[in-house]
Model the fold of this input.
Amino acid sequence: MNPTIKKWLRPLAARILGRHYPAVVGGIRWRRVDLQQLQPRDQPLAGLDEPHLAAMIAATDPGHLDSLKPQRARGVRRRHNGTDTLLYANGSKTGFVVDGACDGIWRRCEGTQTLAEIDRQLGAPPGPEQRAILRETVLRLYQLNLVDFPEGSPYESSDRSRIDLRQITFYVINCKGATARRAFMEDQLQRLGLTYKFVTAVESDPPHAGLAQSNLKILRDPAIQVPFAILEDDCEFIDDFQHVFDVPTSADALYLGVSRFGIEEPGAFSWGRWDNVQFIRYSDDYLRPLNMLSAHAILYVSDRYRRNAIGALDVGLTREDFAYPSDISLATLQASHLVVTPADPICYQSAEHDGNYDATRFRPHDQMR
Done:
């Protein structure tokens, strides 16, 4: 680690917040910290205080969760200055300032005690409310990849819906005259045994507005029913292709591909930055992006998300300042909808066909901190 960063890590939390959090269970507070610039991210970490977290907790069998032995994730470091605590991972660009209550829970996650046993050690009055806060805190730590469950996923008992990609239709947006890209996509999809239809892209100036209008043409077609997928014609599938996904029943969309670019503020129309994507862990096999710019391979699961995607694309095209690209418009939905992506994505953009290979060929699990 850079010696300058290491020098400032210990007093960082106090310098940033300048406040003392109550060392009691409850009211867990989070603050994301940029370790390279030694500055806080002013916006809260989206997605942790929304109804989705409550739904995830409600869908988790309390008995199953209480029987697991949470363990501090390997490589996570702790710096404490007497009032606040910074948790961060080796090589990461982001840390999290947590209050005393959360720090106390995290330190007790040694992989030797069940959640029920940790509950009895906290010293606060026992009861359903105390246990519920403990479960919520540990699940948040799990989402941020700061805690693991070696014995199995905490969502093991949660409901899943099976989607076989061989039983849905892939709609491929292809520009008129782009015969090489069309042949490239056709060869892949036939080889993978997938059902597909080509959709001629809407021509527009600027071109990204035409791509957004092309997405709208598909999404507004009443003959198309969920689940279905929309692909851009520079999309390339990995070799060890996975056909079947067991997705959370409450999922709105499954991003089959990812990107290193993320909008500045989750939920807001803004331009993206490299390595600015926020991921939280939804389960062992899925991550949840909160601000990711990636629209080359999206599987639409819920009608609600489809309707709101139409609304977001319409808003992006008619804003007074600029007609926003479709990936920005769709990224604004991620913080308020349950959008998940496989820990190992199956699609990326092809360098051979001028796709952004460097931005899309990576494992988001390695990027989420």
Q: What stands out?
A: The two ends are 16 Å apart (CA to CA). The longest strand covers residues 169-174. Residues 128-143 form the longest helix (16 residues).
